Amino acid sequence: xxxxxxxxxxxxxxxxxxxxxxxxxxxxxxxxxxxxxxxxxxxxxxxxxxxxxxxxxxxxxxxxxxxxxxxxxxxxxxxxxxxxxxxxxxxxxxxxxxxxxxxxxxxxxxxxxxxxxxxxxxxxxxxxxxxxxxxxxxxxxxxxxxxxxxxxxxxxxxxxxxxxxxxxxxxxxxxxxxxxxxxxxxxxxxxxxxxxxxxxxxxxxxxxxxxxxxxxxxxxxxxxxxxxxxxxxxxxxxxxxxxxxxxxxxxxxxxxxxxxxxxxxxxxxxxxxxxxxxxxxxxxxxxxxxxxxxxxxxxxxxxxxxxxxxxxxxxxxxxxxxxxxxxxxxxxxxxxxxxxxxxxxxxxxxxxxxxxxxxxxxxxxxxxxxxxxxxxxxxxxxxxxxxxxxxxxxxxxxxxxxxxxxxxxxxxxxxxxxxxxxxxxxxxxxxxxxxxxxxxxxxxxxxxxxxxxxxxxxxxxx
Length: 462
Prior knowledge:
Elements: E1 12-16, H1 26-33, E2 39-42, H2 47-59, H3 67-83, E3 86-89, H4 96-109, E4 115-121, H5 129-134, E5 155-160, H6 165-172, E6 177-179, H7 187-197, H8 204-217, E7 244-247, E8 253-256, H9 267-274, E9 284-285, E10 290-292, E11 297-302, E12 305-309, E13 312-314, E14 319-339, H10 343-360, E15 370-375, E16 393-402, H11 405-412, H12 418-421, E17 426-427, E18 437-448, E19 455-461
Parallel strand pairs: 1-2, 2-3, 3-6, 4-6
Antiparallel strand pairs: 1-7, 4-19, 5-14, 7-8, 8-12, 9-10, 10-13, 11-12, 14-16, 14-17, 14-18, 15-16
């Protein structure tokens, strides 16, 4: 662990401008332009994202990272450099080298000099899976208990969730931009608080507080009114403000947003995000600590300002979580709109016809591998919302899964013909024939921390 050397400032403002790869580019741009900041963090990665990036890299050695990040850097870096705002992102995906080179190219194009870019490696273990298993670490599936060995040849990505230490090392080395791979979502926020406040790595209450701060803002505007149950109470959602944490050395922090922006920050919006992806609330596990979410104290202290305090923490476990994905067959999904009257009956008949016609040509899809949804009849809240008796139209989503890609493609050829050879009122076929695509399944595992060594490289663009 890098050693911290005292408090560097008494208040740090840390914002998060991306909750996933594909979030609005306006988030980080507005955060930089609409008010004061010290750190801009950007969280791009999810489990399936890593597999997508590995596939992109297999096709192009210069791909495999969040390209949106490079566009964002072009938009905000001059302002960040002028105001001393540091950028931390897990945009490196499975190719942090290429991401660094792309960002360095933008720096040169902008005519900036002396920008220090850090790259963190070591989380990607895809090429090490056989070696790790042979050394006696079976990487058992946390859900089923099955060992990974039989699936290694089908693995498409394998990444360890590393913590904040490498990011702290990069900041201590003077980095203006830190590019990580599969760093945990909260660690993007934990690191600047550790660095700025000089906390020790066994100060688990403060580590837990920083973890809670990172968890609250990791999904971007989801804690400032986005995806909020009482959405009608959220003003000016088009200009929703992305979240900012104002932290002090005690571990206390305030969740807020820039003045004059849309959205809403109160105990309810913050609580909604706190319970997101929650297991045992008393043992929220991260590589840096275990945070006790049941100890959190929330208090509204002003308009769009929520104070968070009282967080307790425990030492971390001796394992890292590993996110592994593997190829698990193929799927096909197509859809049509079926207009009424009798929309439900006609849509169900359409689905039956598709499977029957495919079977006439030798493609037999077992019932357990079929998917038929009638959107508009309450399928999103089935069993909770009263079913709709006779809607004016429904969207028929029909799909299947299996090991035979060609068979699924053949099934897909029978969907559009319903327009002229099925019940009346069928439309919405402009997208053409659906094609089978790979199913990527998720394999969560644990591995000993001593097997992972991260590496920080800092490049100064002159």
